[in-house]
Design a protein that fits this description.
CATH topology: Hect, E3 ligase catalytic domain fold
CATH class: Alpha Beta
Largest sheet: 2 strands, antiparallel
Structural class: mainly alpha
Shape: elongated
Number of strands: 2
Number of domains: 1
Strand order of the largest sheet: 1-2
Radius of gyration: 18 Å
Distance between the termini: 56 Å
CATH architecture: Alpha-Beta Complex
Helix content: 40-55%
Order of helices and strands: HEEHHH
């Protein structure tokens, strides 16, 4: 028996998703929301954002020294650092940055972070 779904054309959502996946497979920015902290999209490609990368390194260093996520967020807020969207830091936003640094968050597109220190 033939599956009737095999004859249906993809929905607009499915076509968009296929296009995003194809672009990500080629190493381009797939457009799933705003880029991660430390990155920016330029002409459809993800590149490092130097100012945010500097803050991400501060987060990494404070975490490695044993500070809690909340202490790191408080420290950043006291010094006027903000998140990508200009908000105050929360412990969950610090955790997301650390997850990306330590490779716990899957990447949609490959940005060469080889010049940043991850250990």
């Amino acid at each position: 028996m033939v599956d009737p779904a095999a004859y249906q054309s993809p929905t607009p959502w499915e076509r968009l998703e296929q296009g995003r996946q194809a672009k990500a497979a080629r190493g381009g920015y797939a457009g799933y929301g705003s880029p991660a902290f430390g990155q920016q999209a330029v002409n459809g490609e993800l590149i490092a954002n130097p100012q945010e990368a500097e803050v991400a390194d501060l987060i990494r260093r404070h975490h490695r020294s044993g500070k809690s996520l909340q202490k790191i967020a408080d420290w950043l807020n006291q010094r006027g650092y903000t998140t990508k969207r200009g908000h105050q830091w929360q412990r969950v936003s610090v955790k997301r940055v650390l997850d990306r640094i330590y490779g716990r968050t899957p990447r949609i597109s490959g940005v060469d972070d080889s010049n940043s220190e991850h250990s």
